Amino acid sequence: QVQLVESGGGLVQAGGSLRLSCAASGLTNSNYPMGWFRQAPGKERQFVAAISRIGGIAISADSVKARFTISRDNAKNTMYLQMNSLKPEDTAVYYCAANRYGDASDLQRKQDFWGQGTQVTVSS
User: Fold this and answer.
1) Pair 49, 81: CB distance under 8 Å
2) Rounded distance, CA 27 to CA 81, Å?
3) Could you report the per-residue pLDDT of 89-107, keeping only the tens digit for each?
C-alpha cells in the first residue's frame, strides 16, 4: 500500500520561508518521480514542481521557479519543497504526488498517488 505523508505547512508572513516534506512508503520500484501540487480556495489544483528519482532532474512552474526549490533524499524516501520569499498568493493546500514509474515531466501530466495535503497560509 502506497502512502504519501506531507508535513511542514503552517502560517507565515509574506517574505518568510517554509519547508515542506513528503515521506513515501510502499513504492518498491527504484525509479518513481515525486512532486508538489497546490490548490487555493475556489481554484483548480495546479502543478508546482516535480523531481525524478534518478539524477534528481527537477522541473517547476514559472510562478515559483525563482523562489521554491524541490529536492529529495532517496535513502529516506522523502521529498522536500523549500519555499522562500513567500507571497500571499502562495496560500493553498499543498499536495504531494508520485507515480510508480517515469520522470518528472510524466508526473506533471499524470499522478498515480496523492498525499492528504498540508495547509500553507501566507499573511500580508
Assistant:
1) yes
2) 20
3) 999 999 999 998 889 999 9
